[in-house]
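One-letter codes give the sequence; the fold follows as tokens. An example follows:
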Amino acid sequence: MLAADLGITVELTDLLLHPDGMELRLALTAYGHAARQARFETRHLTDPHDPCAQWSFLRTEVRYGTLHGEADPYQAPILSFGTTRLTDFRTTPRYWIGGGAPTPASLTVTVDWTRIGLATTTSTVDVGSVSRVLP
């Protein structure tokens, strides 16, 4: 678990290592009021350059070794559910971290989505020696 707040969780679901980088997979799940706000904030835009459109997203910043930057929010697939017993909103963003073959280092992930109630949270995961890298 990378972050948890009232009605919101963010998890690191997978870390896939490749010869030229790694793929980071997250899952944000929201319930109740946070889910309703997330659905409103991520509505589809007909014109992404329209300054009148007010929306937000899960902000994700990654630091791995000497690499550092904000992940691209436009690449996050959104899976929004109707009202169910437990889950109202779920998104599973995937981010690419390039820069050569992964070596042992710390992966630091900072996430926030203040407009739905998720405060800025930073987590660090040690990426140890790699025994097998995907082709």
User: Anything to note?
Assistant: The CA atoms of residues 62 and 68 lie 6 Å apart.
